[in-house]
Write a structure and sequence with these properties.
Oligomer: single chain
Strand order of the largest sheet: 1-2-5-4-3
Number of strands: 7
Number of helices: 18
Radius of gyration: 22 Å
């Protein structure tokens, strides 16, 4: 599959940023505005900005003053957010230490420290796993600090937000119960898998192998749903660049096979080695390997949070299983699943209804009437995607 000149340049500049490499001459007709939009779509604007600055491209010789300011602002903002998040998180963890609440920072909180420069890895939120028995106590504390409980008690994580940009997700589990996989079971009794921090009484962390497996599983979850953008693969490269030689790969292969992500892990690892080989030039991103090219195209068009089209296609493929095509029967099954998502959805999103299940039939009727009124355009777009699937 072909990728555009902007996309090739985008991948090349990310390669330069993570490898601390000065980019060679970029195409004379490079559309830096388009490059900026693509970078924002993947939440890597600061990272690309580092590479552009290193190559001397943040100048009026190459772009407008307004666009220069956008690129520079992205980097400054990411650095500021990172430092302010660190300070705020430290205050919260100090409280958890005082109250005897065990905890473990997750994902980007750990990974960002491995990047070459402060703020290179943009942070939208901070994720922390903690002792679920203190859920209400932590809520009271966060509210006392001026946070709004944007999402509390209805899912496997609670979300707290505060201006100007603070967003903390406190997880009581790593993955929800799902008929698609056994991850919830695999990560039950999670504390038994953790190692205690040396300088903290109640802080914990994964072993390196288990951290890599978790991050890979989390990326795969998004990849197979609405898709996941390039930042997940940059994270993988950064982690492997720091840890690969010391990891127990026999253990990783065994455990990824146990939870059904063995093939994805292999493919993702091969992809990041292709994308972030320091010797790459712009033209090298047009891969002749059809599988690699298809994966690159899928990732580039997914963006940070995936797309509705991908989610529909991937859900239909799951329902389709071994069927040769997405026929009318498969599409009707998809529609029924969307209209009546089942008890797992009720348990995760509507705990009151789950406790009083006699109300569920009334809820389905309400949902069938209410959803088209509230999200008519989105549902119409979803239906069009479904109709055109083959």
């Amino acid at each position: 599959m072909e990728i555009s000149l902007t996309e090739q340049t985008f991948l090349y500049l990310l390669n330069c940023a993570v490898n601390k490499k000065v980019p060679k001459e970029l195409p004379a007709d490079m559309d830096f505005e388009d490059l900026y939009r693509l970078s924002r779509f993947h939440s890597v604007t600061a990272m690309v900005s580092y590479a552009l600055d290193a190559g001397g491209y943040l100048s009026e010789q190459h772009m407008t003053q307004e666009l220069i300011q956008k690129w520079a602002s992205a980097r400054i903002s990411a650095m500021r957010k990172s430092l302010m998040f660190d300070a705020e998180r430290e205050q919260i963890l100090r409280y958890m230490e005082e109250q005897g609440i065990w905890y473990m920072p997750l994902k980007g909180v750990i990974l960002k420290e491995m990047y070459p420069d402060v703020g290179m890895r943009e942070m939208c939120d901070n994720d922390i796993l903690f002792d679920k028995h203190y859920r209400e106590k932590l809520k009271d504390y966060m509210v006392s600090r001026g946070y709004e409980a944007a999402h509390y008690g209805r899912y496997i994580h609670d979300i707290y937000t505060k201006k100007p940009f603070y967003n903390f997700e406190f997880h009581v589990e790593l993955f929800k119960e799902s008929y698609k996989d056994n991850w919830s079971t695999y990560y039950s009794n999670i504390k038994e898998r953790l190692c205690k921090d040396e300088n903290r009484e109640y802080g914990y962390h994964f072993r390196d192998e288990d951290y890599y497996i978790y991050v890979t599983a989390h990326a795969y979850k998004h990849y197979r749903e609405g898709g996941t953008g390039i930042r997940s693969f940059v994270d993988t490269y950064i982690y492997l660049n720091n840890k690969e030689s010391s990891l127990n790969w026999d253990y990783i292969e065994k455990e990824t096979a146990n939870i059904g992500i063995y093939v994805y892990e292999k493919d993702a690892r091969a992809l990041v080695k292709h994308l972030f080989d320091p010797a790459k030039n712009i033209e090298d991103f047009l891969s002749k390997d059809e599988k690699v090219a298809s994966m690159i195209s899928y990732v580039l068009h997914a963006g940070t949070y995936g797309t509705q089209d991908n989610r529909v296609k991937n859900d239909v493929m799951f329902i389709q299983a071994d069927a040769e095509q997405a026929d009318l029967k498969v599409k009707l099954k998809y529609c029924m699943k969307r209209i009546y998502p089942g008890l797992e959805h009720i348990k995760n999103h509507h705990p009151f209804l789950y406790k009083h299940q006699w109300l569920i039939p009334f809820f389905w009727v309400y949902r069938l009437i209410n959803r088209p009124l509230r999200n008519g355009k989105q549902l119409l777009k979803e239906l069009k995607t479904l109709i055109h699937l083959k």
